[in-house]
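User:
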Amino acid sequence: MSRPDLNLLVTLDVLLAEGSVARAAQKLRLSPSAMSRALARLRETTGDPLLVRAGRGLVPTPRAVELRERVRHLVEDGEAVLRPTEQLDLRKLERTFTLRSREGFVETFGPALLARIAREAPGVRLYFLPKPDKDSTPLREGTVDLETGVIGDTTGPEVRAQALFRDRFIGVVRAGHPLSKGKMTTARYASGQHIAVSRRRLNKGPIDEALQRLRLERPIATFVGSFPAALVLARASDLIATVPERHTVYLRDSMYDFALPFDLPELDISLLWHPRLDADPAHRWLRGCVREVCAEPR
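Assistant: Predicted structure:
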């Protein structure tokens, strides 16, 4: 059995990305006829048309759509293997990285992360972006270099992930609040007026579902879109905020917090990035900085 020509993977990757024989030929510095012959070989090898005419352009077949991400990963891995090892000089490194995270991450870990970077690589800048959802498109398109958060259904299967830490929800009230005295029970927690945090305007979340299993319901006084906003309101009222513990350690300074008197799953916070940056020395260094800063006791 003859071995397949692995050079065709690069050709297929560019063809599927460009969706045009002419543009693919230009990108690979080939003549259009040479690219057409390469497409014919790919069709013969895969047993599929891959790209078919639709009006003036070409559209991928279902098989081509299925192969697109797999081929991209194979080409990226091959490029990483063949790329010469670079000696990273952090003192000379000049680069801006974009990090996307949920609210509270910058306030909790940002100062230590920036101090670490300033010491080791003064030419590096961090651009922090809010994370409104778990969609992996920004990582895939390269507009975001790193993300932190919980892996969800919309997280792309190709995204690389590494555990950072576990977080848990806690209750928080203003100093001197009636709940700051005496034993916390599920009934006491559920009887107070609550602030619900929901970006999608959901009336019920994991907290409400847990209480419902105990045949309890918490009164919702107001909805907000972020945990910092919930803490601001709780600090100035008798409302109860329920927030992630580690993400809000500085935001709830001088407030009273308590462990929830019922079981609620913990949050597994991960560091996420696209595999194209796996072997990048500067990106690998930054990932290490984030992991170590998050591992430090708060």
